[in-house]
Amino acid sequence: MKKSKFYPLYFVLPVLLVYGIFYLIPITFGEVYAFTNWNIYVSDIKFNGLDNFKQMFTDSSTARIFWRAVSNTLYYAFMTLILGNIISLMLALALNKNLKTKSILRTIYFIPTMLCALAVGLIFTAVYNPQYGIINTVLRGIGLGNLTQQWIADPAIAMNSVIIAGIWKGVGMTSLIYLAGLQGIPGEYYEAAKIDGAGKIQTFFRITLPLLISSVTINLFLGFVGGLKVFDFVITITKGGPGMQTQVLATMVYKELSAGRYGMATAYELVLNIIIAVLAFAGLALLKKREVEL
Amino acid sequence: MELQTKRGTIFNICLEIFLWLLSLTILCPIAVVVVNSLKTAAEADYLSLELPAVFQFRNYVEVFQKADVVRCFGNSVVITGVTVLLCVVLSSMAAYVLSRNRNRLSRFLFYLLLLGLVFNIAMIPTIKIMQSLKLMNTLTGLILVYTATSVSFCVFIYHGFVPTISTTIDEAAIIDGCSPLRVFFQVIFPLLKPVNATIVIAVFVSIWNEFRMPLYLMNDPKRWPITMTIYNFCGRYSSQWNMVFADIVLVTLPIVIIYFLCQKYIIDGMTAGAVKG
């Protein structure tokens, strides 16, 4: 049977058209500005080769912020990826059990995902408030007053506070994807495992996890890329501060853009995109390989 | 055997209690928002969980009037609804063909489409293209940009699930003389139901909550989606938590209601379990 006749390429055409015009063409032309001196103070845009990147990597003050932003971006991405996925998977396993209040619980855990990132940022600004915020109030209330923190103003923990907000919002969606995967596993497999006398842990690693691998791939890939692109929570909760302590690459793009240095902003964007591309596709290749092996 | 099921029940009860305790980490911040949205500005300064002395329902009336909530809600419904529809139909078609044709071209197109998951949209060139197509400041333009930025995620998800539907199903339909479009829409598409449910929620939530695109692409407040009201509102009332919280509740409420209305379908769609290995 000739395959292309039954799976014709015109099925792909509408997507390619919209995607090409409104996404691919703009990003292709957009990157060119990274090699120009374009800013609001000059009238003619000139190519300046690698000057923007030279400044980014070598100029002492810029370079310090740049490397801080890179390490913050990676730290945020890895922390939300690992903690977020562990919590989501455990939550999905629990919510897949035959519980009485299953559907109410599922709804509650999905609420943060339904909120707009802007709203989540504002909510956490309130929750972290050192005087009246709910976290410090509860800590004082249960006699652990010495554990209260300046959640946003303390440079040592500000980044972690942003990470908590990111996980809080992300878990609903991630666990929903795991839940969908869990429900695709035929019940007979578990019965067979039970008859064969497999323990709970063995069943999880030999049946659940391998059959869940496409959900795992989806969640790890999307979570990692989303983490590297983090912007909303940083801009709403810490605004990159205190100082430049919690700047990430996406907020640097925004910072340069609002300062009117469009060329430099695009250069930051290009660096971010290259980091994402290299790490995400390497990770995806690794995951796909495992998927085949299993 | 009986002992084992009994132990299972006790375990489930403990698990349920634990899940309810854990859910406080979500319910408490939400309660702070709801309770404080009903207080006076001075009371709301304390961000406490105490009930207000007098319930200030007028906050909501004020937000309603000042933020043009009804019109923006309508815009959001149109923008989100059409985008979700386009994403579901177009991406499932594309993913089906790209997944079934295991050749070099399909693989190339699939990875080309995945780029959208990786790179952020470039705002300035997009604005230029929108201007030349006369789509600036139109709902159509915003919908097309949203569709372009969402299809990568959708194709990625569908592409992962299509192989779980056996090719013998399409072969049988083809032998019966169905055209490719009929094979897809009458046979394959219904089998994608659990994935469709996931896609609908994911795209709906992300587009409903998006606010950066309209910031760049829409100058006309009459065509703003509802999230822009939070953005706009926080600028003006940043020190008044009661107003900000009331607006957050108003913006979030529709999505919560839609979730409740669809919930049965969502869970049914997932438990239908058409996807089998």
Automatic annotation (TrEMBL), chain A:
Keyword Cell membrane: yes
Gene3D superfamilies: MetI-like
Source organism per UniProt: Diplocloster agilis
Protein name: Sugar ABC transporter permease
Keyword line: Cell membrane, Membrane, Transmembrane, Transmembrane helix, Transport
Pfam family, one: BPD_transp_1
Any Gene Ontology CC annotation: plasma membrane
Signal sequence interval, chain numbering: none
TrEMBL record, chain B:
Pfam families found in the cross-reference section: BPD_transp_1
Keyword Cell wall biogenesis/degradation: no
Compartments, as annotated in UniProt: Cell membrane
CDD domains, alphabetized: TM_PBP2
A biological process from GO: transmembrane transport
GO CC terms of this entry: plasma membrane
Entries under InterPro entries matching the protein: BP-dep_ABC_trans_perm, MetI-like, MetI-like_sf
Stretches that traverse the bilayer: 12-35, 77-96, 108-127, 139-162, 183-208, 241-262
Main subcellular localisation: membrane
Keyword line: Cell membrane, Membrane, Transmembrane, Transmembrane helix, Transport
Membrane topology term: Multi-pass membrane protein
UniProt domain ABC transmembrane type-1: residue ranges: 73-262
Keyword Transmembrane: yes
SUPFAM superfamilies per record: MetI-like (SSF161098)
Cross-referenced PANTHER family: DIACETYLCHITOBIOSE UPTAKE SYSTEM PERMEASE PROTEIN NGCG, MALTOSE TRANSPORT SYSTEM PERMEASE-RELATED
Entry's family note: Belongs to the binding-protein-dependent transport system permease family.
Protein name stated in the entry: Carbohydrate ABC transporter permease
Gene source species: Diplocloster agilis
